[in-house]
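Notebook entry, structure prediction.
Reason for the run: the old model in the group folder had no record of what sequence produced it. Starting over properly, with the input documented here first.
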Amino acid sequence: MNLLDVFSSHEVFALATAIPAGSESESVGRTVIALIAFSAVSVACAMLSLVVVARRWAFIGEGIGHSGFGGAGTAWMLMALVPAWDRAWLPLLFVALFSLGAGLGMGVLSRRGRISGDVAVGIFLVGTVAWGFVGQQIYVQTRGTEPAGFLTLFFGRPERITDAYALAAMSIAIAVTASLLLLKKEIIAYCVDPELAETTGVRVGFVHYLLITLLAVTTIVGLQVVGTLLITALLVLPGATGNLLSRKLPVVTAVAIASGLAGALGGQLIHDALPIVPLGPAFVLVMFVLFILAFIIAKARGLRG
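New structure, fully documented this time:
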C-alpha cells in the first residue's frame, strides 16, 4: 500500500481507529499516521530553521543530534554490565537526556560570547561521540553482537513510526509554532542583534535558552525520521530556501513550511515508487532539489547577489 493508494481509499477517515491487524486498512492507517508525523516534524524544523539560518546555528543542530550517541553509549554500557537493564527504551531515554543536556550546555558556553558557538558545539560533539563508541564497543565485547538501535541513530527508522511518536511530533510542532508566534518580536530582535535587543529590554537570556531547548527537543524527535547524519538538513534547508526567494518574513516562513511539507510528501511518494530509496534520504533530497530550484529562481530574478 503506497501513498497514492491512501488518497484514493474510502477508508481514510477511519485510519486512526482500531483496525484488524494485517488488513489492508491497517496498512493505509500506518501510512497516514507516518505522513502526519513526518509533516509535524517538517513544520517544527521549518519554523526553527528561520532561527537556525538567522543565527547561523546549523552546526548546533548537528551537535545536538550527534550528542545523543553519547547517551546511547551510556545506555549500552549499563545494558552490558547489568543484563536485566537490557531494554529497548533505555537507549532512547539516554539519547533524549544527552541531547537536551548537550543543547543547554552549548547554550551556556556560547552565551555572551564566552566561547564561540562552533567551538562549544565541537567540544560536546567530539566528547559525546567518542563516549558513544566506547559504550558500543563495551556492549559488543560483552554480548558479542551490535546493540539494538545502533544504525537507527545514524540513519533513522521512519518506517517504524508509532501512534505515540506521531502524537509527540504534533505536540512539538504546536509548541514550536506557538512559541515563535507569541515571542515573535523578541525573537526577531534577538536574531538581528542580541546585544542591542538586551539594551532595549528584550529578555535575551530567556529567548536564547528557550530556542536552544526547542531546537534540542525537535532534534530528538526528528532523529527517528532521518537520524543524526541528516537531521541538520531539516533544520537548514527550509529556512535557506525561503530566504532565497524573499526578504519578507511572512513569505519566508510560508516558503520554509511549504518546503518542509513538500519534502515529507515527496519523500513518501518517491519511497513508494522506488522502495530501494530510503525514506529519510528521499525526504532530504526533495528539499535539496527545492533549494536548488529556489537558488536558480533567485538568481534569475536578481534577489540575491
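Summary: The CA atoms of residues 141 and 223 lie 27 Å apart.
The old model has been moved to the deprecated folder.
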